[in-house]
Design goal:
Blueprint (H helix, E strand, L loop, with lengths): L9 H13 L3 H13 L3 E2 H8 L3 H13 L3 E6 L2 E6 L1 H14 L12
Antiparallel strand pairs: 1-3, 2-3
Helix pairs in contact: 2-4
Length: 111
């Protein structure tokens, strides 16, 4: 276990910052929560219906969540289905712990 008093390496800090930034919006948190609880791929239309947020807004937020790999996109013909990335979401509490100075555990890789 690394109990260093040094700050996180810059690359690691930037990765964690991108995760926190992606969740720094109530709509994105709602989308992540919806997909995590649903445990099944959903279309943009289904997410719009469940969230009450407009289609263009949902699409914008899904793009941001996909960039940090919290959400995975499955193409089916001309449509896309979105699902939670369980590996990445399981990393998130670890990211918060590391940022707050707890020892770095062996965390799953966020793919």
């Amino acid at each position: 276990m690394d109990e260093s008093k040094e700050p996180l390496p810059r690359a690691e800090a930037e990765e964690y910052a991108s995760w926190f930034k992606a969740l720094a919006d109530a709509t994105r948190i709602q989308i992540v929560s919806l997909l995590a609880r649903r445990r099944a791929p959903m279309s943009v239309g289904e997410i719009v219906a469940e969230s009450g947020v407009g289609q263009s807004t949902v699409s914008h937020h899904l793009k941001i969540l996909a960039e940090v790999r919290f959400v995975l996109v499955e193409r089916q013909g001309t449509s896309s289905l979105y699902r939670i990335n369980d590996n990445c979401v399981s990393c998130f509490p670890t990211a918060a712990d590391v940022v707050m100075g707890k020892p770095v555990p062996d965390a799953p890789v966020c793919d």
